[in-house]
# Entry
Amino acid sequence: MLLEGKNALVTGGSRGIGFQVCRILLENGARVLAVSRNPVSLMGAREALPGLLTLDADVSVAADSNRLAAWVQDTWGRLDILVNNAGVSPRGGAELTTQRDDVFDDTFRTNVFGPYSCTKRLLPSLLASDDPRVVNVGSSMGIMSPDMRGVYSVSKAALHALTVATANELRGKVVVNALCPGWVRTDMAPDAPGDPRSSAEAALWLVTQPRAFTGKVIQGRAEVT
Ligand code: NAP
# Structure
């Protein structure tokens, strides 16, 4: 049991990649709290994964992240693994110069503010761990390239930058990396060829790397240059 006795929180844990991350962390002995906005999907996740703990919260809302941090502090007193996985991808209307401002705002609130806010608010609990780890779920679409388009890519590029900057700030205290999970079949990407279980395996690999391995953006098991 690689993660026996560890406490883990997975945002967006009710379905898709986050659900598979919850599953693999539980299988490896961790206590796992799954967080998302919809209590009905959280109930479904609980039924599918015995032992899973759940809390409904919206990571784009600071008051909800405060509630999460209070739950972790009061219930566990320590957090070993934080997986900032919750993310949204606006359907259609993703042209930066013509889309509505609220589409841009909502995407950034979940994909960038959410991981920033959860990491910041959960930091006291992370610092109580002897080996704290943060994984931000990024995207290959956020890797700087001449073909980048749309707010989703811009938000994931910002998340990769947030990962490196947070890792630098917390070096020697908390290990912080980003994982590009591959193009895998979920509600967000129903036509994708990949299996979200492979993304979960990559997340498990990442949280078991040596502590010096921090501030990286990982795709598969390789560092993105
Ligand atoms: P998904 O199936 O749509 O699941 C998204 C999860 O995030 C759900 O549990 C959703 O639950 C939760 N969520 C969304 N907004 C939230 C918020 N504001 N607060 C709390 N929870 C929220 O998507 P997925 O494909 O598993 O994606 C997971 C992550 O991987 C995302 O960050 C995505 O950008 C990234 N990613 C996915 C792919 C892919 O091919 N699937 C590729 C690259 C990167 P509720 O809606 O109930 O809140």
